[in-house]
Amino acid sequence: MAKRGAPPLQADLLQGTLDLLILQTLVLGAAHGHTIAHVIEHRSDAVLQVEHGSLYPALHRLEDRAWIASFWGTSENNRKARYYRLTAAGRRQLAQQTSRWEQLVGAINRVLRPAKE
Amino acid sequence: MSWLRFFRRERWDQERQRELQAYLDIETDENIARGMSPEDARHAARRKLGNSTQIREEIYRMNSLGFLESLWQDSRCGARMLRKNAGFTAIAVLTLALGIGANTAIFSVIHAVLLRPLPYHDPDRIVIVVESNPGKGFPRFSVSPPNYVDWRKESSAFQSMASAVLGDFAYTGGPEPERLTGANVAASFFSVMGAEPALGRTFLPEDDVVGKASVVVLSHGLWTRRFGSDPQVLGKSLTLDGRPYRVIGVMQNGFQYPRGTALWVPSEFDKESLGPGARGAHYLRVLARLKPGVRIDQAQAEMSSLSTRLEQQYPKTNAGWTSRVISLNEITVGDIRPTLLVLFGAVGFLLLIACANVANLLLARAAGRQREIAVRFSLGASRMRIARQLLTESILLSTIATAAGLLFAEWAVRALRTLPPSNLPRAASIGLDLPVLGFAAAVAIFTGLLFGVAPALQVTRSAPSETLKEGGRTSSAGRQSVRSALVVLETMLALMLLIGSGLLLKSFVRLQTVDPGFQYTNVLTASVGLPASKYSTDVQKVQFVDQLLERLQSVQGVKEVAAASGNPMEGSNLGFAFATRDLQALSPADQPSAGYYVVSPNYFHALGIPLLAGRSFAQEDSLGTPRVAIISQTVAQRFFHDKSPVGQSIFIGVGAPTDKPLWREIVGVVGDVKDDGLGEAATMTIYEPYRQMGWRDLRIFLRSDSNPSQLAAALRSQVLAVDKDQPVADILSGEELMSQAVAQPQLRTLLLSLFAGLALILASLGIYGVMSNTVAQRTHEIGVRMALGAGQSSVLRLVLGNGMRLTLLGIALGSAGAFALTRIMKGFLFHVTPTDPATFVEVALFLFAVALLASYIPARRATRVDPVIALRYE
User: Fold this and answer.
1) For chain A, how far is it from start to end, CA to CA, in angstroms?
2) In a shared domain, residues B233 and B315
3) For residues B118 and B254, what is the distance between their CA atoms, to the nearest angstrom?
4) Above 60 in pLDDT, residue A2?
5) Quick one: B361 and B328 in the same domain?
6) Across the interface, which of A56, A57, A77 has its CB nearest the CB of B26?
């Protein structure tokens, strides 16, 4: 299971996080897998070194839940590529998960901060 | 969603492949743009993406239903294993198919006969009300019309109540006169049964008036057969017993009650049959439909108090008579239920034995697969996964066996369906229908788990490292003990079945040796019912019989001819109170009762019933001469003691009661006939000459030197020669008459013996298999023993001793089990107790001998082990 370069996070935590990142990426508009992978990598200043391949099962899962939809299109450099866009359900899901994520981060921070000081 | 994708996984996978390829292309393009060489660019892109096959597999799995997927895999793998071991598969399938087939067949009978509701509307509310006089030996008896009328008026538990009387009708509309079974029923009969007509209407109360133009309702069968399903049949006229009946309705297909009824006519009670003297004449079948919500016991309580009141009101006729309310279902199938349940238990045992055998085979085979499984363990398969695979294999095996078993069952069901209803009620409706198939499917899964669980546990419990380390020979003491336990179980179950069938066989043999009291070989009997409209006077009836007997006597091949009011062995369907001079003070209700026959003078001679004293009837005993009677031996012994009955007087309560009782002179005593069945006590019987007591419902007997069946046509034509409108029915040989009397014991003895025989074969195969396997596994040990000087006989003793220990344990347990269980068969046994020591010992010895033989063959093989080869083999 362990993948080269993947952060040693717990699988389900990672999975949920990856879902959130993908949804967030698609807020700006439709994108294909390659773009999504690079956007996540760049935006996190390369901290999240996700193996690009692991994105695809996640995309599949999200599409399965109807949070994103897909279509074939042509990329900037004229390659056929599968594009993904956020659905209404996906937008709701993103808002929900973002706030849950913030709650979680806040809670963890509150626990960690006294120890730091 | 996932379901749909499950079936489109391949297309999805291609789609993903294209998508991943797109990623690679784009990434490669960008890498080249960054200045990499095309080759490096491609490699870098691949690295960035990761293992694309793994990604595709992950997505593929997401699209599949894990459980089904592995089930499918396991099934395919299992099918391969079964194909590879064709011999093992064939034996296992055959063994299980026998067990499952027998179970399915018996269950189909139980379902059709006991479980499925009777084919009437709301059948649970239909009851039969009988009169009962246990003191006289009539626990369930017909009802007299006046009592029925009172019940109907005064009871409140029933929504409706109706009477029915079966009767024969001579139908003369066809090419040849035909006898039809019909029923005289009250107008409320159809509403009690909840039956609607397919055409026209059923009876109204105003149809049921004596002297009015008669009406008839046809059964669907008669309508189809005789009227070509003519929809214009309503209003047409039908000649029955020489009297015109107007057709007013046709019942729906499948409605036929009482059994065999082709038509229904109104009951038409006349003044006489409802008069005060008729209270003692019991001949009605009374049916009723309970009001909604009323239980049988509530109806019974009301009927009991009603009967008590009638008993007080009419002590002369009703003393000792109570009433019983019995569900129609109980009446229809109550007698057969114990037989079916015993048979169901027997096939259950048979299936367990089959399972034990197959489990044994699987265990033996598991030894060979130990390494395969150990390797799979080592490669990371979980115990659960392997156990599931083994169980899937077992269930696959039992499923194939069930398919084969259904063929057996279908064949058996076809045979059972041809049984006459007197042997097996509702036999025609037996079939492999949906519930039965459901049962078979459940049995398939259950047996698969049952025989698969032991091997699966065994295999998964053993440590893989041990197996791999040990190489070939495994110390399999644990497995051996499971197999020994299975052999003990098989032996035990087989012994129980064998004892059960042994007891039935013994009873049956004893039953067959009972002298029925008459000679039935080379006898032909036929039924002739003279219509009342045409034969109203005694003179007419006597004339018909006189002419017919005279004509038949001259037919080539006929040795003896006789006529009587009933067949011997059909049960004393007519019983009348009688009295001797000593008993004449008793009220009619307290008088003893006897079976009653009206016979021609030659009857006793023709049927070989011995004349013990006095004389037989003579042609001169006719309408004008003093009344005479002949009694059976039991009557003579019980009521005349040491006095000779010949010349004494006897009164018989037959016919309309008169002020002055009619006494007959006893002219002879004849031997007893077992009218109530071979297993029952001899019936008391009183005979009267037909020339003094005209009778309409006649049986004609012909005796010839050889097979009398070719005389049937002659009999028919002679009857037509006397009266061209007179039908003949129920032509039976004497053997058929007798076989009807032993049909039920014969059926259950045959079936149980069949199952016990199969059990014996399976159990001895099981013993043989286990002993062979033991010998094969102990070849090395036996070789060492022989090398150290053990003789052949001691090796023989070693192996046989092992087998016999298991057999004896099984026999001991089986005897105990049989001792506990055979008492449920008490009602089936005749002159044998359920724990008959002789049967127990004989059967146990028999089984022991078979087991000895089954272990002797492998033991002999062990003695031929060559120590040199056995040791070198290692």
Assistant:
1) 37
2) yes
3) 11
4) no
5) no
6) A77
User: What tens digit of pLDDT does each residue of A56-78 get?
Assistant: 888 888 888 889 998 888 887 78
A chain contacts of residue B60, beta-carbon cutoff 8 Å? none
* B327 & B349 share domain: no
Supply the mean pLDDT for chain B: 84
pLDDT-derived band at B472 (thresholds 50, 70, 90) equals very low
Angle (CA) A83-A84-A87 rounded to 5° is 145
* CB burial readout B300-328, b (16+ within 10 A) else e: bebbeebbeebbeebeebbebbbbbbbbb
Same domain, B775 and B816: yes
Domain boundary among B282, B309, B333: B333
Residue A70 in 3-state DSSP? strand
- For chain A, domain boundaries: 11-116
* Distance (Å, whole) CA B132 – CA B490: 47
| Among A57, A79, A82, beta carbon nearest to B55 | A57
φ/ψ (deg, to 5) at B391? -65, -40
Q: Which residues contact B718 (CB under 8 A, 6 or more apart)?
A: B548, B551, B552, B555
- Domain end, chosen from B333, B362, B385, is at B333
pLDDT band at residue B477, thresholds of 50, 70 and 90? low
Say yes or no: B290 and B377 in one domain: no
- State whether A57 and B59 contact (CB < 8 Å): yes
Parent domain of B212: 123-333
Nearest residue, CB atoms, B50 vs list A34, A52, A81: A52
**How far is the alpha carbon of B375 from chain A, nearest alpha carbon, in Å?**
23
- The three-state secondary structure class of B551 is helix
- Coil, strand, or helix at residue B250? strand
Q: What is the CATH number of domain A11-116?
A: 1.10.10.10
Name the nearest CA neighbour of B260 among B164, B326, B128, B329: B164
Is B823 within a domain? yes
Which residues of chain A lie closer than 8 angstroms to B44, CB-CB? none
Q: Are residues B491 and B571 in the same domain?
A: no
Q: Is the pTM of this model over 0.80?
A: no
Tell me if A52 and B58 make a contact (CB, 8 A cut-off): no
